[in-house]
């Protein structure tokens, strides 16, 4: 990948300031988990308060002196800020502290670089890293600010910095073209599913809410699932059969986080589009988390950014085993499911989730005993192809009595192919009341 990482954990000093400029504060506990997920070894947390960031160092001069002492005392190799730093602030801090300095965006990019497994995921991470690095190139070439010189290099050349910027622009353009091709392929697959009338259900939620564990519990996919931030980066899809819905595609997506860097949202747009084109979103929530409401707000913000805010959503409150709760379904005044409480780890309540998905995506169903004439054998065969027949009885006159259950839209399509109308069907004992709305 673009960044070379050391084999062992680096000694890191963490910096977290409470700023009173209107933005929601970051969580220092989540910050420490991010550092641990990146493979760092936090040795000290330096905190404080400021009305606004210092223009040159982000922290004040007094706090900078405190940082210098902590870094020297502990032999720290890295200082990580739980904030977004400007390129000049990073450069000034590195000169003052005499060690590497990383901000929150760079930290998340490093974690993503470790987690990417597929070719597409690696491309997306590299694109985000390159865009982030493009504004920070001057840090690496302060000793080569003059134009190149020497034999064969004299004349109207370009500075080393300009050369690197040109190479970066070329690499970014190449990656964007390849990701555009990936997006085209995803759109083709999506159109194929739409033509086949196969709905897509996407798992979304805050990082470490339990999406991959739930995905494995439902599909037996065995995707990587660990109690760490951003355990899943590459999207995984599986076909699933749900009662009264039929086949659907279940997609596991990358987790969101507070103030997710915009560079990542842009780079992962091809992946996130899968969620924005879903028939239903399963918003997985860590029910045991103290900051549950804040996490929900952050996920809703990212969904709005990718154009998925108006999609049908079913909230899935996970980890109820940590709260000692029983699984249940919450419904609105019309009986539609709005939330499911379950434990993906133990499997409690997963059957209720399947019931809720069926209710949320279910269409008007037809169920009853249908009587077919001998000349309607092709319709009988097609009903079997749809796996809609539960029982069959034969009459002495060659007719058949089928006990069927299938979506009305599927039945109407079969009738259209046979040039039949719905009101021409014959139900046993005049029973056309088998239609039920789901």
TrEMBL record:
Mg(2+) binds at residues 212, 232. Its main location: cytoplasm. Residues 199-365 form the Hflx-type G domain. GTP binds at residues 205-212, 230-234, 252-255, 318-321, 343-345. Keywords: Cytoplasm, GTP-binding, Magnesium, Metal-binding, Nucleotide-binding. Its cofactor is Mg(2+). One of its GO terms (molecular function) is metal ion binding. GO terms for cellular component: cytoplasm. Monomer. Associates with the 50S ribosomal subunit. PANTHER family: GTP-BINDING PROTEIN 6-RELATED, GTP-BINDING PROTEIN HFLX. This is GTPase HflX.
